[in-house]
User: What shape does this take?
Amino acid sequence: MDLSALKERAQAKPGAPSGAATANVVVVTEANFEAEVLQRSMQVPVVVALASARSEPSLALTETFARLAAEDNGTWVLAKVDVDSNMRIAQAFGVQSIPTIVAVAAGQPLADLQGPQPEPQLREWISAILRAVEGKLSGAAEQPAAEDPRFTAAEQALEDGDLEGAVAAYEAILAAEPGNTEAKTALRHVAFLGRAEALAPNVVEQANADRSNIDLQLEAADAEMFDQQPEAAFGRLIDAIKRTAGDDRTRLRTRLLELFELFDPAEPVVVAARRKLALALY
Assistant: This one.
């Protein structure tokens, strides 16, 4: 798998798994993925725990790894990722189920685990990773540079589920720095999360049953995006654009462009969807 696509530092919600970050445990988002996973894995193995706040087993497994990381005192680092809010990371690792654990060394995936595992098996797995990279990496990771406290406050609000607080924090950054691209990207992610949290659980089925309802098509596309199905979300909106005109078409196109902005514009799924949009419009 190619992890280089995540080197663009697009701001996103921090991982939901509980527990404070330490020198050996870090919450990873798309914003700090390059520094905390790719770059740090040049020094020590990074165990990426892909979990979800909706899955108690995945949170429990993540906390077990956090305790093991503390016990091992810097020989490896745990990176906690909330897959619900960091879809691009989950896609890069090809996550099919949660929890998924991936060990990264020298910038590349080395081994993975899926599903809950007993602690002795986890310890054995980690020991095998450490043996495999022995003498091949540069050693203990340096402490990461201090983060911008304004972004730290915004990310903490997101982690606490305070979307309004996060919006206010990012808007304050933009008021002081109108050209701050990280804050602009973060606001787009927060807007998407706000819409996704309000969705009915069966909105996709409702939209499929009534394809003439524009509101349902917009909501269903958000639901599919939240479920890490960007191709389905893009396709739904493009199909609706083909069937509509006037204000309805404008609404659909505007939402589609907003969803494009959640991704690196060079990602194949976005490039393909933009091509299909152009054909649908002209």
About this structure: The chain has a mean pLDDT of 86.
